[in-house]
Structures are given as C-alpha cells and as structure tokens.
Amino acid sequence: MGENKEVDYYHGVYGYIEDPTANKLLVVKKTKGAYKGKFDLPGGGQQAGETREDTLRREIREETGADLVEGNDYFISRATTEWTDDDQNPRTLVHTFEIARAVVGAADESITSSDTDGCCYMAKIAMNPRNASPLVLEALDHFDAVDPDIAEKDA
C-alpha cells in the first residue's frame, strides 16, 4: 500500500526581474514550504479582488521592498513538487504560476517576509535544480535568459 501524501494546490503571480548589466536575476530566499532553502521569484497568492498586477505589485513590495514600475509579457505554467514538511509528512505541491517580466525600483536585500529571508541578485547561470525553485528554472527557460556566450565561458 502506498503512502498517503497530502496534495496542495496553489496559484500565484511572480516577477521575473533582471539586472541586465550583470546577467543576474532578483530572487528571494525561501524559508518555508516546498521550496525551503531554495531561491524563488518574488511573488505569491492573489487576494480577493486583486488583479494579477495588484498581486505582483504587493508581493514584490512585501518581499523585496521594491516598487513595481512595469509588469508585462506574462506566461502561465505548472510544476509538481514532492517534498517533506517540517513534521516529516510527505506532501505534493501542484503549483500553477503566472510569471511577468517585471521592472522595479531599488530592492532592499534585508527585507524578510513570512516565508522569505531577504532577496538578492544572483547570476542566472548559477541557478540549477539544487538551489532554485521550478519557477526560477521555468522563467529562465521561457525568457531565454542565460546568455550562451557567458555560459560557455563559465563552463
């Protein structure tokens, strides 16, 4: 007989925020949930009555301290992640996400939220399945973000 896994379904709106001069991506450090210990995109769940731009604006502000200047070029995807919660219970997260290419003002790396411990710009080439959430990896793939010339030099 198989294990009973709790399945969580979650939908969120996230920002893909580049520092184009350094080939870096603004990420948050997750402290809870399926992506605990990984880098993730700033964002989260919609509240009642919010548009996706409202959610994007609020979540980016809460997790990075930055003000949203522009959010566009959204794409929608889904990832399923198997994980173990803090009580050692096996769980499955089915995560549907909308990711927008976003432009923001200055971020405050010291800001923390209920499930993040600061933010930072990380080299896109350094993101991999061991240190980044599926959202980060899908966004990098979707926006064709890693400059192949830089990747070749670092290989």
Describe the structure.
- This protein has helices at 52-64, 134-142, 148-154, and strands at 6-19, 24-30, 39-40, 43-44, 68-84, 90-104, 112-113, 116-123.
- It has three helices and eight strands.
- 30% of the residues are buried.
- Strands 1, 2, 3, 4, 5, 6, 7 and 8 form an eight-stranded mixed beta sheet that branches.
- A hairpin with a 5-residue loop joins β5 and β6 (90-104).
- The chain is an alpha+beta fold and 155 residues long.
Radius of gyration: 16 Å
Number of helices: 3
H/E element order? EEEEHEEEEHH
Shape: globular
Q: Could you tell me the strand content as a percent range?
A: 35-45%
Tell me how many strands there are: 8
Can you give the helix content as a percent range? 10-25%
Largest sheet: 8 strands, mixed
Return the structural class. Answer: alpha+beta
Q: What is the straight-line distance between the termini?
A: 45 Å
What number is the mean pLDDT?
91
Weakly predicted, low-confidence segments:
151-155
List the helices and strands and how they pair.
Layout (H helix, E strand, L loop, with lengths): L5 E14 L4 E7 L8 E2 L2 E2 L7 H13 L3 E17 L5 E15 L7 E2 L2 E8 L10 H9 L5 H7 L1
Parallel strand pairs: 1-6
Antiparallel strand pairs: 1-2, 1-4, 2-3, 2-8, 5-6, 7-8
